[in-house]
Design a protein that fits this description.
Layout (H helix, E strand, L loop, with lengths): L19 H5 L7 E6 L5 H9 L6 E6 L1 H9 L6 E5 L13 E4 L5 H8 L1
Parallel strand pairs: 1-2, 1-4, 2-3
Amino acid sequence: MMAMQSGGKTIWADEGAYPVRERLGEASEGEVLVVDIGGGMGHDLVGFRERHPGVKGRLVLQELPYMIERVEGQGGIEGVELMGHYFYGEQPVKGSCHRVFSLSFSRSSALQLKK
């Protein structure tokens, strides 16, 4: 498993930052609970699992294929499914689950969005 560090920053799964148990509830073992879209190297999902180890359901990291290859090249992430996905394509994960958007836009992307 690759080593993950969030640098001490608060993430949505921290106690008090977001009512995780009240909002997410629980999924069955085979159901997808959270899809982190644009989740980079998976820091938030690792943090979620560390903070809520008893919550059932699958965790999916969606990122551009080259990023997924980087994560796989570092040994993957235990308990997280890796999925190459382009944000503008059709969402391959269907059904009722929670999606977390971990998108960050560069200055040029933000300028393109203004046009």
